[in-house]
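Q: What would this chain look like folded?
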Amino acid sequence: MTVSIRHLPIFDTVPGSEYGAGFLLHVEKTGYPETYDGVSTSKPELLEGVRFLTDEIKVVTSLRLGGDWVPCALCRPTSPKCQKGRLAYFPLEKTVCFVGRNCAQKHMGDAYNDAQQLWDRQSRSRAVIKRWADMQARLPEWEAFALRIKPVARSLQWMHEKLHDDAPEFALTAYDALKWTSGLIRAWEDIGVKDDAGKPILQHMELGKAEGWRFLRHDFRPLKTLQRLQATMKEAATALPVLTDSEDQETMMEIIRRGRAAFGVAKSLNDLDDEMVAARRFFATGNLRLFEAWFKSGGSPWSKLEFYRKANVIYLRSESERGAGYCNLTVLKDLDGEPPPRLEEFA
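A: My prediction, written as structure tokens:
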């Protein structure tokens, strides 16, 4: 189907979002982007400052006469060219046109990239603004959760710091050994068979998996992490900056930054609590016995290791190539409670 050329330089300023929304409804119903009110089919020659008015869409060509594809104003304005494209505003020509995706990328060059970046930021900032009030309604629940897990975070961080201060040799050696196996502890076992040279044949034996071994990580700072999340919640309780200019990219980026931080708080709180629940298992009697079994197997990195718990105190004596470690570590009572129910994440 041949399309007549239509040149409508009627837009002194960029059309509002209502215009783009109306266009999308029209295309969904008719399959004809080029017949929407105000759309030009003439080829735009002045591309500088182009602005996108919609996301990329795929036109349902079965709605069109003969199932034809859609003309592209940039390269084939009077005959079928594309299925995918978007509505664009050309300010120097005061026109709005439907342009094919590949054609736009090819012919617009840097103008396309600039327009795409602006559109992405506009879309993302609008999405944050739309959901901000819903997020703020969830803040009291998140803040209560944070207060509930804070004593555990404080206790675990204190214990972590004491262990690293008193016995850095043990903490670093254990973490370095376990990170390569994701906590799995193996030893060599004599299977009772010898090779041709008369040497015993050994095979790996799995002793078990160390619980909560990431507690040993040098940067394990649950209280500091929680305090950062509380600061994010405090900021999230305030209003977003007002976006008075649809092309104010600095304000858009600030809105996007705040949205990214605030919308991820519930997941981050859940992840932190999961990490702390695992860390608490590190101090279980059975877990400490696993370390001693590792040492006794001859396959551990230590030449000496005593690691056991009496009541609420853990006793550690170790020696390795890094040196000697000594620590009497009190398991604080805040670690005895049950973790709170998980938060529903703000997806």
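The two ends are 45 Å apart (CA to CA).
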